[in-house]
Amino acid sequence: MSALLESPPITARSTEPDYVRMSSLPFVKLKHVSKSYGFGQQRREVLKDLNLDIARGEFVAIVGYSGSGKTTLMSLLAGLIRPDFGTVMMDGREITGPSPERGLVFQNYSLLPWLTVFENIALAVDQLFPNWSKEKRQAHIEQYISMVNLTPARSKRPHELSGGMRQRVSVARTLAMNPEMLLLDEPLSALDALTRATLQDEIEQIWERDRKTVLLITNDVDEALLLADRVIPLSAGPGATLGPAVEVDLDRPRNRKTVQRDPHFKRLRNEVLDYLLGEGARKKPHRENVAVIAPRDEPSASRRQPFVVSN
Amino acid sequence: MNERKFRGDWIVLPFLGIVAVVVLWAISSKTWAPNLPTPWKTWEVSQPYLMKPFEKRGELDQGILRFTWYSLILVAKGYTIALLIGTPLGFVLGMSKMFAKTFDPIIQILRPVSPLAWLPLGLVLFQKSEPAAIFTIALCSMWPTVLNTAVGVRAIPQDYLNVARVLNLSRMKTLLKILLPATLPYMFTGFRLSLGIAWLVIVAAEMLTGSPGVGGFLWQEYNSLIYEHIILCIVTIGVIGFILDRLMGLVERRLQVAKA
Questions:
Q1: Please, are residues A19 and A41 in contact by the beta-carbon 8 Å criterion?
Q2: Which of B239, B224, B242 is nearest to B45 (CA)?
Q3: How far is CA B101 from CA A123, B37, B132, in A?
Q4: What structural domains and CATH numbers belong to chain B?
Q5: Chain B: closest CA distance from residue A207 (Å)
Q6: What are the backbone angles phi and psi of residue B93, rounded to the nearest 5°?
Q7: What gap in Å lies between CA A39 and CA A84, rounded to an integer?
Q8: Which of A71, A93, B44, B213 is deepest in the core (most CB within 10 A)?
Q9: pTM of the prediction?
Q10: Model confidence pLDDT, tens digit, residues A81-119
Q11: B:229-258 residues touching chain A, CB 8 A cutoff
């Protein structure tokens, strides 16, 4: 392992990714985005100066520590919250609120427990396509249920399903909305390793078929490398920011078994890990605890210094 | 240890409990409480009311279930008003922090007030005994519905609301498709507790207003010195209250399953 970490850094990679040169207008653009929570001394900067361009049809994965602000970033893109500074744009327009154009798959599935699989998806489809005939909507729903292999469970309620099945319903609900972009917020992090692998394959198949723009947020470097065109590490908070992007130029479809032994895959993984464990690492252990008592911490204390001086 | 040895324990054990209390009652009436009618005397005197439960022999002399029926109707009226006012009030309290801050203290002050205190006010307001009784029942039984509904609305996971936002559901649709079903299990717990209180209040209300019903009958028989009927009324009130609670509990449990 140490030998791998000491391997020479990849310098041949161009600093400008291909898509930037190909298209002058990225599909999604984050410009100097910052977001903080709390007020006064409790104020805690979650995201600091994020810049990100995503091309249409691209599959981008963001890898980061838990608690580093990944979900905050997702909520910004979904339009559920607004940034304090900077802009989030999609298709040349600023994102000002949530919209079915950006289909969000929640970490904890967010299925409505009193509705069946079919009804959960129908809630979205009926709302978004009111002009379709009843038969067309019905067929549309059934199509997405069968796409995630849940037809036998179509009349079951979420509490009768396993975690993997619930996440499938959630994915099907989002896909049935025909979004222009898919936002996957740690969709598989609550699942066991085997179910995770199966669903990763399903996500890749679905993406290969539709070629929708996808942003995946995960804490699993392998998952990111297996699925994405580009992997971007997110440094540990507070004040998390994006590290250097890593282009994943592995041929598709990627086979999880062979890819693990591929030296290039290992090199890419180390590149991401080097940033996450080095420059982008958490400053202190037990950051979660530190966050609560942030005002008494060194960085915050130094921030307050001018206050003291001016007095 | 071996509590599950025999299968009928759910019926046998409660029966033994009842027998124990009846024995204690019999001993008491024979020793330190000579005014307390014995169990068999109570049975004897209550028989015409129990065996012909729906008979009407006169305004104040009717079968016990007939009296119960009058009481239930009165409870139903007051309880319905309590739900109609309490549920929306709970929703507003749960949704608006400002509203909750404004009205929570006054609710906490009004909540513990006894029905015996509200009833005279009802009589002053409405002049007649029946509306006064309904007023008291509604006012006293409303609070569990109000508070549980508010708790239920506050407990709705942010995720459900995010689903509504991503889908651009209108306010009305969010209320009907998300808020209402998500709150229903909590609401129903409130409904059940409210019904218990409504039934508790009826006796006090009937006693003070003298309207026909189990409570009114109880008070009248006390004045006529027929103490056996007091016990008959107590047992009836208890059994009816138990049945009402169980019925609500059944519905509630169905909703809890849907919540899980």
A1: no
A2: B224
A3: 34, 52, 30
A4: 79-259 (1.10.3720.10)
A5: 21
A6: -60, -40
A7: 13
A8: B213
A9: 0.74
A10: 999 999 999 988 899 888 888 988 888 888 999 999 999
A11: 257-258
